[in-house]
Amino acid sequence: MRELPRGTVTFLFTDIEGSTRLLHELGDGYADVLGEHRRALRAAFAAHGGVEVDTQGDAFFVAFARARDALAAAEQGQEALAPGPIRVRMGVHTGEPIVTDEGYVGLDVHRAARIAAVGHGGQVLVSQATRELAGPAGLKELGEHRLKDLTAPERIYQLGEGEFPPLRSLNQSNLPVQPTPFVGREKELGELFVLLRDPSARMLTLTGAGGSGKTRLALQAAAAVVEGYPDGVWWVPLEAVREPDRVAAEIRSALGASGDLAEHVGQRSMLLVIDNFEQVVDGAPALAELLARCPNVRMIVTSRELLRLAAEREYAVPPLVEQESVGFFDGRARVVDPTFEPDDHVIAICRRLDHLPLALELAAARVRALSTKQILERLEHALPLLTSGARDVPERQRTLRGAIGWSYELLPPDEQAAFRQLAVFAGGWSLDAAERVAGASLDALQSLVEKSLVRFADERYSLLETIREFALEQLEESDEPEATRRRHFDYFAELAAAEDTSAEAGYGVQPGALLSEVANLRAALDWAVSAGELERAVELMVVLENFWVSTDPFEGARRYGELLASGVFLPDRLRARATRAYAGSLWISGDYEQAHRMNERGVALFRELGDDEGIGVLLHRLGISTLVHLEDPVQARGLLERSREHQHRAGSERGEAEVVGALGYVARAEGDLEAALDHFSRSAELAAETGFIWWELGMLAAVVESLIRLERVDEAEPAARRHLDLSRSIGDRQQSVFALVLHAWIAARRGDVERAHLLWGAVEAEERRAPIGQWDTERDDYAARVGIRSGEEPDRARLRGRGLSLEAALDTARASG
Length: 817
What we know:
Elements: E1 9-16, H1 19-26, H2 30-47, E2 51-56, E3 59-64, H3 67-81, E4 88-95, E5 98-100, E6 103-105, H4 107-117, E7 124-127, H5 128-134, E8 139-145, E9 154-159, H6 186-197, E10 203-207, H7 214-224, E11 233-237, H8 247-255, H9 261-265, E12 270-275, H10 284-293, E13 297-303, E14 312-316, H11 322-336, H12 344-352, H13 357-364, H14 372-386, H15 395-409, H16 413-422, H17 431-437, H18 442-450, E15 455-457, E16 460-462, H19 465-477, H20 481-498, H21 512-515, H22 518-530, H23 534-543, H24 545-551, H25 553-564, H26 572-588, H27 592-609, H28 612-628, H29 633-650, H30 653-669, H31 673-690, H32 693-709, H33 713-729, H34 733-749, H35 753-769, H36 775-786, H37 792-802, H38 806-814
Parallel strand pairs: 4-7, 10-13, 10-14, 11-12, 12-13
Antiparallel strand pairs: 1-3, 1-4, 2-3, 5-6, 7-9, 8-9, 15-16
Helix pairs in contact: 2-3, 11-12, 11-13, 12-14, 13-15, 14-15, 16-18, 16-19, 20-22, 22-23, 23-25, 23-26, 24-25, 24-26, 25-26, 26-27, 27-28, 28-29, 28-30, 29-30, 30-31, 31-32, 32-33, 32-34, 33-34, 34-35, 34-38, 35-37, 35-38
């Protein structure tokens, strides 16, 4: 073999598509065809300076010193093979690998192979790194794609203009990116693949102790079969859920569904991966109903106990085998200490910890401060003392608890206190929250992260659920639980008040800080209810008024309804505000009749308070409700004029913007589009002058719609860009999605079918990620306006759009059509 290129190297991987099928079709002639394929490719590689690194079966691994040479070789090779029966997929990627006596090592080698694996016969796929070196000529962008090792997305290009099916990547899923490589488990994955192909095994429940690797195994298996599910593979984490009746809601959220879950899924072919079900096991009937009503749905569930459903097939996840266990420990230890070298003690540690991944990770985190001999000695002495739990609990589960307990016992007192109080958080926490709720200093948090008890990513901290359960036990056994939970409530109540999204505060404009704390807000509200602090719960719900409207109006309506029906005594003003907030969530969730009744009740409550602004706000809402739901523009106009009078008396600057805009809706309903446009434009100006951004957004959207209907598309585009930029600047997801719809509509009116369908595909992707308020009631109308249809070109464009993140889609929409 010639000397391998060093430094920046471009790798080319090849693989024959359908080799087994060809073998059956060609019989004895396959060997001759295969030989000709090898000669043709080797000639192409040699002509451009390629060095053959490895050949396995019918696949080549070749290295090039220059990226352009690799692409030229790939092109020549495909041309040579074109007349014959063999179709080869190729992947090209550039990196800086390590060269050893055995060849190349490093992530770049694996990435090149992964890129090749998602292609089709006759197709050459190229990474972003290779494109940057070789230049864009002859390369067609295929968008960002997630590969089967669950790493971060890779932007992939195709050499040439050939037409191929969508790539076999993970874009039709929301599977989370994993921070570390997947180790071993070939046997288990193979067994799971067999079960997933068995039509009678519609629900696989992966059981095992906490920390045995159920979740990671489920994710890896799901990632490998994405291409077999046309409607996607969807991740439904339940780690922050404690209420069994929320199971269906969590699945709806993952799929972007609203209303009846089974009706939304229907005949779609999809795989659901539902994690941590043991804490909501009484919610299992929701899964049974979904399986019964949706014949093409399959599920992988992880749980520490069976769900006891007729469709269930158990797969007990075993510990790692010894070789995998040692490799796992070695890999995690090298993350902590790159100079780590395994010795005989590592095998003993793995055996002592029953080869459980989480226990191994905790032990490996100690190599920075302890030798492997010391780790083993401490395990031998600590575990017997810390082993606890019922005798019918599997031994390895007690061992895992002992491993966590051992790590806890090694902490100094201040870190122990911080660790157990951090368990009060749900769904992670910020540094400020840790300091104020748990008294955890930055040094303590960093130490807990280094010891693998706490995880840190994207400026947030979190606990693995098994570790959190142990920490909660310690918290409950201390004298701190009630005070800690009260501090937790106080902290998030203060955060919500600072981000005040109530009508009094202009509905708020920055939901970002609250969006990352949804699980903690739920936990705080649940504690307040259980502790009998109902008035404080209502106060918190009221400052979250527009937060629920923008994120989950269904949950908002449920919580407001339960609190108002609880019989709790509330001060008159708080009850009036809560009634208004309840009506807002009801309206956005589509319960128009109940929303109308609550708005009428709210008007009466604010009238008793003599609050002109409160009366004016709700008369404005009643005016819109009367127009849209009751279809009575005359009565609506009267209500809006009364709203204007009350808000004028109250000196409300934003009230005039609201009334003028609502009168625009009345004019539109009466068929006077020009008058409607004048009202919407003036309302947007007034809202901008008073900083009423949320209302300005809605008016800009109405302006764009009116201009499109009036065939003034060129005038609509600047307003649409302003609407997009504004929605993006304040993090309003619903308006950002609607911005894509408006730009798709503009593209359609200009005859740009491809762009319109691309943007619509991005909207479809967001529909699947999470509910979008009232979108289901309007979707079909907008699909008709955009002219969504099936066909080769539109379908390809929509598929590309579905592969875009919301941010990438907004960038595309913002660019000139």
